[in-house]
Amino acid sequence: MIHIRFVILFLAIRAGFAAQAQCPSAPVLLTSQAQVNAFPANFPGCDYLDVRFEAAGADVTDLTPLSGLTGSSKNFYVNFNPVLTSLTGLDNITEVLGDLTIEANPMLTRREGMGGLTLVDKLLKIQNNDGLLTLDGMTAGGVLTDLASLVIIENDNLTDLSDLLVNLQTVTEYILFNKNNALTSINTMNNLNSVGWYLSIEDNASLVSLDAFNSLSSVGLGGANWNFEVNKHPNLIAINDFVSLSELGHNFSISNNTGLTSIDFPSLNNIPGTMSIAANTALTSLVGLGDFTLVGGLTITGNTSLPECEAEGICTYLNIVPPKPATINNNASGCSNRQQVEAACAAILPVELTTFSGKEDNGAVLLHWQTASEKNNDHFRVEHSANGIDFTAVGTVPGHGTTAAPNDYAFRHDQPAKGRNYYRLQQVDFDGVYAYSPIISVELTRGPALELYPNPTTGYVKIKGDLTEGVARLSDLNGRLIATRQLPDEYLIDLTREPAGVYLLDIRMGEERVMKRVVKE
Predict the structure, then answer these.
(1) How far is residue 216's CA from residue 363's CA, in Å, rounded to a whole number?
(2) Strands 174-178 vs 119-120: parallel, antiparallel or unpaired
(3) Around 198, how many Cα atoms within 13 Å sit in the side-chain half-sphere?
């Protein structure tokens, strides 16, 4: 009986406290110190906010009347307080489940005040706080592991990120480090492994090093058309900390870093968009970019000290047939135009390939190539593609090790696709190092006689010929599926809403397969 009475008493006391707590039901905007001071009286017992909160006042100097707050489920802003010097008073806040923004507080110099913060669920933005020197003490020290977005921009005197981000692992949207003019190093994010949208590090005038990203493996895989960019740093000397970065969602840009002398991305594997290396006037080599697949355009321009552009990925891109767009100019001799880079790429190959050709042979494709000399050549891997982009291995031919004598090679591919087929050779050394040959194409004329009309087209294109039951799939050169048609009934394809360019039509009828190119004007 005593125990039951105690429980009833406890619940009654708890209910009494809950009844006394009066939290706001509408968004809160405190525009003066008087309103800040009145908050505890206006909302007695309130410790957790479920509404948007903002402190923004011309005379706000003291946030200690807010010390009863422990968290918020909505956005929390401390913005545009011209005389605020400290965040003291927010010490007991442990979580913000919306955005947390600290912006345009020019006198904010003291770092203490949010030392209890352990969780920010969405955006963390620290912007335009010109008196702020360090982020030490803004959270409980290295406890943030996941954010939606991180923005640290326009803090003119910020020199130290401290341990604010030391355990950050995932940012699902974007990171911006821009225009922090006194920041010399970004060195506290070595556990970060992915950024879902984009990573922009730009225009930090004093930035010397990026010793913070050695675990980062992907940028931009969570959305379309997102970029990786490190631009406009006159004092940045080297970009060599992205040792694990392998996958990008779209474009890659390193530009206008006038003090930059070297870049190193040893794990870079895939760039679905464009690559731009521009106006890095002290840069001397791109070889550290390694071997990667580039789908979009290539721009290497205005790097006036750059003679070495023959990174393996760049060489592979320049070897694609038909040639893909590349702007290479205003660099040092050796990389001043496309022809110079192609010559440099040919010179670094361990095998001197003199010819590589193919022809149709009774429904198969017979490949032939000849070498003038070989060094440590273990084997050739023959790779095939139906679209000139996606290659798979179809066979292996042993090499001749090291020899100065010419050698002839041949390989028969018995199951090519109908229409145009693409081939390349992967030459592999004994130590596993490899390089690619130029790509060649062979047209197979046997199979169903199909025609696309009109081609080029300004809108619709019709599949004409001996159509049987099957499927036709239209995609762009990036592999994006645009349309699917069931043959023989659905033979008309609409390109009116697609941009001008080249598209691939993959037609499959039973065991027959035909690849056609469609040009939209």
Answers:
(1) 47
(2) unpaired
(3) 17
CB 30 within 8 A of CB 51: no
The pLDDT tens digits for 154-187 are 999 999 887 778 888 999 999 999 999 999 999 8
DSSP 238-250: EE---TT--EESS
Helix %, strand %, coil % for the chain, to 5? 10, 40, 50
Cβ neighbourhood burial of 133 (10 Å; 0-12, 13-18, 19+): middle
How far apart, in whole angstroms, are the C-alpha atoms of residue 304 and residue 188? 33
Tokens of 145: 């592991």
Other C-beta atoms lying within 10 Å of the C-beta of residue 348: 12
Range in 5-14, 266-275, 346-355 with the lowest mean pLDDT: 5-14
For the beta carbon of residue 323, count every other beta carbon within 10 angstroms.
Answer: 11
Q: CB of 161 within 8 A of CB of 136?
A: no
Q: Are 427 and 374 in contact (CB under 8 A)?
A: no
Whether 455 contacts 411, CB under 8 Å: no
Q: What angle do CA 437, 443, 449 make, to 5 degrees?
A: 160
Helices (H) and strands (E) in the chain, counts: 4, 40
How does the average pLDDT of the chain come out, rounded?
Answer: 87
Task: Work out the end-to-end distance of the chain between its first and last CA atoms, rounded to an integer number of angstroms.
Answer: 88
Please report the pLDDT score of residue 174 as a whole number.
Answer: 94
Which residue has tokens 């203490």? 112
Q: In 73-172, where does DSSP find H-type helix?
A: none
Name beta bridge partners: 434. Answer: 428
Peptide bond preceding 398: is omega within 30 degrees of 0, i.e. cis?
no
Q: Give the count of alpha carbons within 13 A of 181, CB side only.
A: 7
Task: Judge whether 81 and 89 are in contact, CB under 8 Å.
Answer: no
